[in-house]
Amino acid sequence: MPTPSELLLAETRRYLRGYRSASLCAGLTHQGTHHVQALRGKGLPPAQDAVFSLGALTEVFTTALLAVMVDRRELRLDTPLSELIPRALLVDEVAGRITLEQLATHTSGLPHLPPNLGAAAQNPEDPFGHYSAGLFGEFLRGYHPTRPPPHPSAESFLGMGVLGHALSRRAGLNYGHALRDLFCKPLGLVDTTARVTDEQAPRLLSGHTARGKPVAPWTFPALPGAGALHSTVGDLLRFLDANLGRGEPGLVRALKLTQVPRVDAGHVRRGLGWNISQVRGHAVLWRSSVMGGFVGFLGFAPAADAGVALLADHGWSLFAALRGRVPLEAPGLALLSRLLPLP
């Protein structure tokens, strides 16, 4: 059996050949032991504690916050938006019936992106940076779904943003502070944040196109729950450990709620934020992202007591995008597959 370091190198080699100038941090937790490799095809590798934008990996933290608040009995999974968002802001009765679980499983029927995203002057280099609380409020007031939820599961970036907004309203804190106080601090996630600190700034990597052209930072002032988080591979491994049953007992119990298969979504099932695939007869829970010049994969296999975190500072190539293949998805799933017991 190859060592964990050999596994990480073997399964990421193809990515590093295809994205020669990408900085990649690859992490594996197996039976509670962490292994981290900082890699680059050409040039100096990044620091092992480099900070990356998580993009859509933010979603599994937003749903973790939901699970914590449900476990604390501050919310229910079937809590409707009408109980959390004032009627003056969410005027449509059918929209108000959307539940937190439907947002977390992408069955709310909300569109993928805000319909009024182009209603104000945009900066192409930061496509969500102009989308303010005012524009978000205008969307909510004008949203009139044609039929009530639930709908077939279809990913909604906007829906995760609405979920983050609803959770922060109930917590009485902005999204970043709610996640920090209720989840990250108790779990010891010191580098997972919606706002990069002065201490983290020197470790923060810039995003790039597939060919290495720098990409300006993306910001999410009105939709932080959909894509605003930054983190390190070390923090993500601690997060995966908690999902595998290690950590503060209350948080471990809450995270189990996110792992229950709830809806079908084509070739996968969905929990709260997680995709759930069957690999060699075992459940593998995972999420991937390509956003703002970064790409990432996060996944774990309870049967193997193993989790994988892969973060890189280059977006996908045109070829990968046309084929719909997130660059780090295949190596992430392959790593977990190799650790699973034989059926």
UniProtKB/TrEMBL annotation:
Keywords: Hydrolase
Highest taxon above the source species: Bacteria
UniProt key word Hydrolase: yes
Residue ranges of domain Beta-lactamase-related in the record: 19-312
Keyword Cytoplasm: no
SUPFAM superfamilies in the cross-refs: beta-lactamase/transpeptidase-like (SSF56601)
PANTHER family: BETA-LACTAMASE-RELATED, D-ALANYL-D-ALANINE-CARBOXYPEPTIDASE/ENDOPEPTIDASE AMPH
Protein name: Class A beta-lactamase-related serine hydrolase
Origin species: Corallococcus sicarius
